[in-house]
């Protein structure tokens, strides 16, 4: 199969590299010449475990290439994937489809034979219809089908998720297009990955419903965590106790500082807009977005409280800035809201993140950056664990405490226990692990 991937961002690059690894010939197109030159030189624009090696292997095998020239890349393609960004539109929260439609028009101007066009970007219900209209209008004599094929990749685990998916969703009722999609995903079909063939609109909605449900699950357990703190219960045991019920499932029940990242915040907002457009309000999802937003700020207050009344002028060491481990992505990271509330309260911040500091730097005026966790904690009045990177899971706690002005720890990811932190001399606060009032 000859595949063109439009957009060499997170989704496009991972998907393109994985498709080439299946044996297909893939060309990734991106408008950004600097990105393409970097990729040609083996440099990845994002941090994703395993990606660099996968790209290098398939480039060397002659199956994967990069270009800025869309027209030549789509010539003779069996399938063209649209994997451009669909950020939140400034002001109203709708998904911004400018890049999707621009790519669609460019595709229409360049194709000459039958081709399946696949939307991989997360797009609101009905976008595939519009993509089809645009192409049919501009190319009335060419056989095309537009398929929705959402991705469910988690950053930091994207290659594994692509190659061992829980399911593949293919939104098209056209037999020819279904056949092309079967050929493209053949190795996964042979491994018996579950496939949901459905209508295009349903497929588009599945993506939003999945992300909104997961965001709801996280937000639910976060509110239970608050209640645990109030009543002297333990949220981790609640998660285990409810998660063992197969109908609930144990995943996505880790209480923390609120969800962030490139998908949940924007997709929940976009789903709310779609619901509004179709006069079917989604009150649960609306509450989820509000609760999650206020939670991020509440985490700042939690740290301030741990510092005590005279917190002004004190220093907090923040460990972890990215929205989750194994990524350098800072989009909607809880650390951003936490830092803002600390700064507003006159608190100094020393931060360390294994991969995120380059991107975080320009977003965090006034924050000093450290070389590791111990350097960050040097002279600090509290250490706050914000992202659960592996390097923070086995810290030498006595060493960390020894360098601090006051050994206070606020563990927003429940990495440690009160006992082990206490043994190292820390005054310890975590999330949803309440103690009985004495
Ligand atoms: C998510 C979806 O999982 C993926 O299927 C979709 O395609 C894109 O969005 P990603 O944004 O990479 O992937 O991150 P994910 O691992 O899902 O975590 C999202 C956020 O939820 C993070 O901020 C994480 O810290 C938080 N989270 C996750 C929790 O707070 N608790 C949990 O139990 C799980």
UniProtKB/TrEMBL annotation:
The keyword Oxidoreductase applies. NCBIfam families: NDP-sugDHase (TIGR03026). Keywords: NAD, Oxidoreductase. It comes from the Bacteria. It catalyses: UDP-alpha-D-glucose + 2 NAD(+) + H2O = UDP-alpha-D-glucuronate + 2 NADH + 3 H(+). Substrate binds at residues 152-155, 207, 252-256, 260, 324. Belongs to the UDP-glucose/GDP-mannose dehydrogenase family. This is UDP-glucose 6-dehydrogenase. Pathway: Nucleotide-sugar biosynthesis; UDP-alpha-D-glucuronate biosynthesis; UDP-alpha-D-glucuronate from UDP-alpha-D-glucose: step 1/1. Its EC number is 1.1.1.22. InterPro entries: 6-PGluconate_DH-like_C_sf (IPR008927), NAD(P)-bd_dom_sf (IPR036291), UDP-Glc/GDP-Man (IPR017476), UDP-Glc/GDP-Man_DH_C (IPR014027), UDP-Glc/GDP-Man_DH_C_sf (IPR036220), UDP-Glc/GDP-Man_DH_dimer (IPR014026), UDP-Glc/GDP-Man_DH_N (IPR001732), UDPglc_DH_bac (IPR028357). The active site is at 263 (nucleophile). GO terms for molecular function: NAD binding; UDP-glucose 6-dehydrogenase activity. The keyword Isomerase does not apply. It holds the Pfam family UDPG_MGDP_dh_C. Residues 317-418 form the UDP-glucose/GDP-mannose dehydrogenase C-terminal domain. It comes from Sphingobium boeckii. It is an enzyme of class 1 (oxidoreductase).
